[in-house]
Amino acid sequence: MVVVMNVDKMSLSFPPDVGEEMRRAAHRSGMSVSAWVTDAARAKLRREALGAALEDYQAEHGRFTAAEIAEAERRLGLGDAGVSGAA
Q1: Distances (CA, A) of 18 to 23, 45, 57
Q2: Taking the CB of residue 69, how many other CB atoms lie within 10 A of it?
Q3: Which helix (H) or strand (E) holds 71?
Q4: 69 with 87: CB under 8 angstroms?
Q5: Is the distance from CB of 46 to CB of 38 less than 8 angstroms?
Q6: How far, in Å, CA of 53 to CA of 55, rounded?
Q7: Residue of 11, 54, 3 whose CA lies nearest to 34
Q8: pTM of the entire structure?
Q9: Is 18 exposed, middle or buried (0-12, 13-18, 19+ CB in 10 A)?
Q10: b/e map of 35-68 (b: 16 or more CB within 10 Å)?
Q11: pLDDT by 10-residue block (mean), the chain, 87 residues
């Protein structure tokens, strides 16, 4: 069986130390560098989407209070992660 993947090929440039760290991280994860970078990009895109959703929510409902942020940190197991912007 032949599996054909639809991919968007691109050429990326990184400083040598970053490229080497990426290769090591991919190897530790048992992934190709392409798969590792794809996972990293997806994680970054999710964080940006979450940030935009939180900004939209606060624009409509007001800034999060310190108590709301503390409760979110507790639920997420972040402890004193230090989220700024509390009212």
Answers
A1: 9, 20, 35
A2: 19
A3: helix 66-76
A4: no
A5: no
A6: 5
A7: 11
A8: 0.71
A9: exposed
A10: ebbeeeeeeeeeeeeeeeeeeeeeeeeeebeeee
A11: 82 96 98 96 97 97 96 88 50
